[in-house]
TrEMBL record:
Stretches of the chain forming a coiled coil according to its record: 1012-1039
GO cellular component: postsynaptic membrane
Subcellular localization: Cell membrane; Postsynaptic cell membrane
Membrane-crossing segments per the record: 660-681, 742-763, 933-953
A UniProt-annotated Pfam family: ANF_receptor
Signal peptide: 1-17
Membrane association type: Multi-pass membrane protein
Binding-site residues, L-glutamate: R620, T799, D848
Keywords, ordered alphabetically: Cell membrane, Coiled coil, Disulfide bond, Glycoprotein, Ion channel, Ion transport, Ligand-gated ion channel, Membrane, Postsynaptic cell membrane, Receptor, Signal, Synapse, Transmembrane, Transmembrane helix, Transport
Name of the protein this chain belongs to: Glutamate receptor ionotropic, NMDA 2B isoform X2
Amino acid sequence: MRWLLFALVSLLPVASSLQSSGVTRGGSGIQIGTSDRGTHSKSTGLSGGRGHSGVRLGDARFPNSTRQRPFTTTTSTTPPSIPKVTIAPHSADRNNSNTLRVGMMVPHKSFAVREYTKAVTSSINMLQKSSRGPKLKLFEQYDIHVKVGMKSLTPSPTEILNSLCNEFLPTNVSAILYLMNYEKYGRSTASAQYFLQLAGYLGIPVIAWNADNSGLERRASQSNLQLQLAPSLEHQTAAMLSILERYKWHQFSVVTSQIAGHDDFVQAVRERISDMQDTFKFTILSAILVTDTRDLLELVNSESRVMLLYSTREEAITILGAAHDYKITGENYVWVVTQSVIENLQTPSQFPIGMLGVHFDTSTERLVSEITTAVKVYAYGAEDFLNNPANSHLSLNTQLSCEGSYGESRWNAGDLFFKYLKNVSVEGDQGKPNVEFTQDGVLKSAELKIMNLRPGLSKQLVWEEIGVWKSWKKEGLDIKDIVWPGKTHTPPQGVPEKFYLKITFLEEPPYINLAPPDPVTGKCLVDRGVHCRVAKDSDMDEMDVQAAQKNESFYQCCSGFCIDLLQKFSEEIGFTYELVRVEDGKWGTLENGKWNGLIADLVNRKTDMVMTSLMINSEREAVVDFTVPYMETGIAIVVAKRTGIISPTAFLEPFDTASWMLVGIVAIHAATIMILLFEWLSPSGFNMKVNPSDAAQKPKNPSPNHRFSFCRTYWLVWAVLFQAAVHIDSPRGFTARFMTNVWALFAVVFLAIYTANLAAFMITREEFHEFTGVDDHRLAKPWSHKPMFKFGTIPWSHTDSTLAKYFKEMHAYMKKFNKSSVAEGIEAVISGDIVSFCNREMDAFIYDGTVLDYLVAQDEDCRLLTVGSWYAMTGYGLAFSRNSKYLQMFNKRLLDYRDNGDLERLRRYWMTGTCKPGKEVQKSSDPLALEQFLSAFLLLMMGILLAAAFLLLEHLYFKYVRQHLARSDGGGCCALFSLSMGKSLTFRGAVYEAQDILRYHRCRDPICDTHLWKVKHELDMAKIKIRQLEKDLEAHGIKPTQAKRKTGSLGWWRGCFQSSDRHSQAESLAVEAPHPLPPYFDSFIDAIDVARPRDMTRNHVVSTEYSDKFLPPQIYRIPDDDAARTEIAEMETVL
C-alpha cells in the first residue's frame, strides 16, 4: 500500500495539470487547453450513466459451435461528479479460474456502446472461426469477460483513479485495451499519460491505440507495459524525412512548441538522420523551441528553407501566423507538419498554402476496427502464455486491489505476460504485413497518409491526401501532384536563392595555381579550374568580359586546393562568385600603421571574402573575422641537399661504437690471450722445461725449436678474423687449436653480420644544413657563426611580420636576402654549386610549412628538404569583413567537411608530389659510382700510412732500442712476445744482418776502393803471419791438432779471415777447437762471407734458438790464448 501511495504522489504533477481548464505556456501567448467541445463532453456526456449493464455472449467450446458458453461484456461510464475513492467488493466469480477478464477503455459517445460491444463480439467470433490465423485452443477452456469503461475528453485525476480501483481491479483484469481518438494534446493527453502510468505501476499490460500517442512523454513512464497500435512519433518523423529525401532537400530546421514530447520528436529526427546517413545526408541547421514568436527570428537570419513543425493545432496557428509576418512562409519556404497540427483536417487561415503533413485516420470507424486488432493481440498473447508449461503455476487473475488488505498492490506476473503480448504476430489486413511490435512496444509496420494543403472547390484551403507512406517498403513514399507554396507546381529548391560574392585571392601553390587560359576559346581546361581576374578594377572599365577572358593579362585560370573547396561551397551553399587578385600583391600586414594587401581589402570592404592560404594571427583577427582553420601550418625552413658525399667512416657504421669496442678490445684480445695461454699450458704445446745440461746456470727459456709467440698469436687471430690467405703458424696443443676454431666460428658470424649491413652504409650520403628551427642560434644570431648563413623570406608576409616581432636581429640581417616570391626563394636555395655550399645564393628559405612541404614534394630531383620544427603554429582560414552574415554558414560547412573527411581528401590530392621516399628505391639497380665505395679507398690509404708509421718505428728500434735491449734480455722474453724481435737479439740474426750488408755492399768512389784494397792487403799479411806462427810452433815440436771434418780442413775460424776473393782459398787456422765440431759446422762457416766489410758496431748476442743450420753457443769455446784473441779482435775491428 505504501508503494501505491508513493506512486500516486509521484503523479501529482500530471494530475495537477488536469485540474485546470487550460495550460499557459511560459508567457509565450500560446495556450493549450480544452476546447468547447471538450467542455461540453465533460458536462453532458455522463449524465445518463449506463451502470453495469452487460451482454453475455460467446461459444462454450470450439470447434463445437452448437454449444454456447456465455461471453460477458460489461459496460460502465465514468460518473460526471468526482466521487470519493471506494474499494468495490470482489465479485462472486472472482475465483473462477476459467474466465479471462480484460478491461477496455474507450471514448464516451452516445449510442456507441453497441458498436463497441459488437466489435468485441465479432472479434471473438473471428478468432474462433477464422481459418487465416492459427487455431486457438484458448476458447476450449476459458471464457473472456470484457469490462468496458468509457472516458470523457478531460476526466479529473479522481475519475481516472476510480475507473481503475472501482471498475477494473475488482474484476481482476489481466490487460487493458486503451483506445482513444481524442486529439486535443492538452488535458486529454495528460489524462492518457496519467492512466497509462497508473496501469504501469500496477503491473497491468496495456494494448493502446490513442491518436495523441505522439504527445506522450516517454521519459515519464517508469514501468512501460504498453503496446502501441497507432503510428508512433518515430513513424511520423520517418515519413517526413522521406518527403525531404524525395525532393533532395538536404538541410532543414526543426521547430517545436512546448507540447508534450517535443524533446522526443527532436531526438527521433536525429536518430532517423543517423540511420539514413549512408544513403542520404541530412543537415539540421537549427532546432528551435518556440516560447515566444521572436524565437522565429533565428529562421529569418538562417538559410533554412524547409521546416519540420511539431506542435498542437492551436500553437501552430500562432507560430505560422508569426512566420507569415516574418515572411518565411512564401514561395521558397516549405513547412512539413505532424499529425498533431493537422488534427481534424480543419484549416485555419494562418496556415499557408502548400503545406505538407503526415496523418492517419482517427475516426470512430477506425477506432472500432482497431478493437478487433487489440482483442487478437490479447488472445494470441494469452494463448502463448497459457500453453507454456513453465507458467502452469501462474494465473492471469491479477488479484489486485487499491487497498492493501484486500489484495496485491502490483501484479508480479504482469511483466512476464507483457513479453508474451509483445512477441505476438497477428495477421494484418489484405496486402499489409502482420501486426508485430518492437522491443519498445512500438508497431513495426505503419501506414501514414501524406496531406497537402491546397485550395478546394470552394476556394477554401483543405487538407487533401496526395500519397501514402508505408514503412515496410523500401520506397515507401507514393505521392501524386502537389500544390507547392505560392500555388506553383514545381518544388522549391530547399536552399536559399543564389547570392553573389566577390572573392579576393593571392596565388600560392598548391592552394591557388595560376595558368593562362586557352588562347583560342578563352576557356579553362578541366584541370585548370575557373577564370579569375588578375587585372585591376581600373583596367576593366569599358572592357568586354568575353574578350578579356582570352587575354592572360586580364584573366587567368585558377586551380588548386582552395578552388576545389570554393566550388564545393558554391554547390552546397548556393552562390555565385568572382575571383579577383589583390592589386598590391601583398598578404596583409601593418605598413606605417595601415593594413595592406588582402586584409586592407576586407577592412575597406572592397571584397566580401578572402580565400587563399591566409594564415590566422592575432593582429589580423583584431580587424577581420576568420572561419575555423581548414588546415594547420607554421613557419618552416627549406634547405638544399648536397649529394655525392659518403662518410669517411662508412665502413665502421654497420656497428656502433660500443660494438666495435667490444670486438676490437675485448674479443680480439681475449681470444689472443686464451689461445696463447692454452698453448702455454698444453703438454704438447709451449714447453717451459729448461735444457737438461747446465740447468742451474741457464735461465728458463722456451724450447729452442718452438715457432710460436704472442705477436704470432695476434697474427693468427687477425688472419682468421678477416679470412686472409697468408702464412700463419698454428699452435701445437689440442686445446689451443680448438680455441682457434671457436674464434674462426665467431669470425664467420661477425663477418656475415658485418657484410650484410655494410651495403646500406656504403652509399652516397646527402649533407644539408640541419637547423633545429627558426630559433636555431645560427639563424637567430647570424653573426655568431662564421661563415654566416644566407637566408630570407617574402617581405610583407605573415612569416616576415612574425620574425620582425620576435627575432629583430635576425630580421634585420635577412632583409638583403629576401625574395619577392616563393619560387624565387626556392630557386635561390637550389642554385649554385651542387657539391658544395660555398657558391649558393641562399643557404635556407623560411616560409609557411605546408607550402614548403608541397614544393619539396614537387622537386623531381629531390634536392630540397624541410628541416627543424615548425614555429608559431597556426592555421589557414577564410577571412570575412567584420560581422559578415556569411561567416556562420561557411563555418558550419568547414566543420562538416572536416568530420566527413572531405578536407583530408583534398589535402592528399593536392599535397602529393613526385618526390616520394619510395622513388629512390628504384635506383638500387644502377652501377655503383666511385663515391659509393670511397671509404674503402680511404681505409686502404689509412692502412698505408699506418704501415709507414710501423716502418719508422722499426728503424727506430733497430737503431736505438735493440742494442740497449740486447744487454738486458737474452732473447727469451722478447721471443715470447715476438719471435722476430727475439731473433733480432740473437747471434744468428746478427750473422744474417752482417751477411746482407757485406753481400750488397759496393763501392761507389775511388777512395772506398783504395780503403778496401788496403784492408784486403792487411788481411793477407795477417794470414801470412798466422802461417809463420804455425810453422814456428811446429819447429818447436808443437803441432796443432786438426779435427776431421767433411772438407778435410779445420776452418773453424775460416769465416772470420776468408778473403772476399772467392777464387783464392784461405789457409786453415792452427787454432784448437775446444770440442769436436758437428757435421753442420761447414755450412755455418760457409754462410759468412767475411771478405766484405762488416758493421762491427752491432752487438753480437748468443742465440737461444736451435736450428739445423746454426751452431749453438754451448758447443764451442774460444782458445784461451790472449795474444791470439787480441790479434783476432784487432783484425775484426779493422774489418
